[in-house]
Specification:
This protein is about 35% helix and about 15% strand. By secondary structure, the chain is of the alpha/beta class.
Length: about 180
């Protein structure tokens, strides 16, 4: 039975390099992994005062989508050496109310994307810190820092370098194995 992979992209721009990399990665998914992009741009900022019997409708819909995923792939750019606010907000909304996280225990992987040389290393590790706290078993190796991303993408958003495509193919294979090992526990 195919596993549903929730894809959360930390950039809201339709033509962002992060979104293009996420789109390219899902083309490498085997039939056993079914991607589902989950929109995070419509979420009101997390405010515990709104965590009542009737929380905001977008929070409820988002949490429901997350609960139906078997695992998650996070694709993030780096803003000011950290995770974009919109992605951090999504993680905060998903993790509440306390003790009822919609993502707890589900396997995850992180891909970070940057036009610079270090491939959004800071954002990748800041996001991992949050995922560990949320009890999301996050794939350790291989780490995926995609630097110089503009040079790796063609006009159609496809990856133009064979070495990058092959790295991401192996990344997906390892992620699939990680999901199966984690869920089997």
């Amino acid at each position: 039975m195919p596993r549903t992979i929730g894809i959360l992209v930390g950039s809201l721009r339709k033509e962002s390099c992060t979104r293009k990399i996420a789109n390219a990665i899902v083309t490498l998914f085997p039939a056993s992994l079914q991607p589902r992009f989950i929109d995070i741009g419509q979420l009101p900022l997390y405010n515990a005062d709104l965590e009542t019997e009737s929380p905001p409708v977008p929070w409820v819909a988002f949490r429901d989508q997350l609960r139906t995923a078997d695992a998650f792939l996070f694709a993030t750019p780096e803003y000011n050496r950290s995770v974009p606010g919109v992605l951090k907000n999504a993680v905060d909304v998903a993790s509440r109310p306390s003790g009822r996280s919609a993502m707890a225990g589900k396997p995850a992987a992180v891909v970070s994307v940057s036009p610079g040389a270090i491939g959004a290393f800071g954002a990748n590790h800041h996001l991992r810190q949050s995922l560990v706290y949320l009890d999301m078993p996050t794939m350790l190796q291989p780490e995926a820092y995609i630097g110089g991303v503009a040079k790796l993408l063609g006009p159609d958003g496809a990856i133009t370098q064979d070495s990058t495509r092959e790295f991401l193919r192996k990344y997906v294979q390892t992620f699939e194995a990680w999901i199966e090992r984690t869920i089997a526990k």
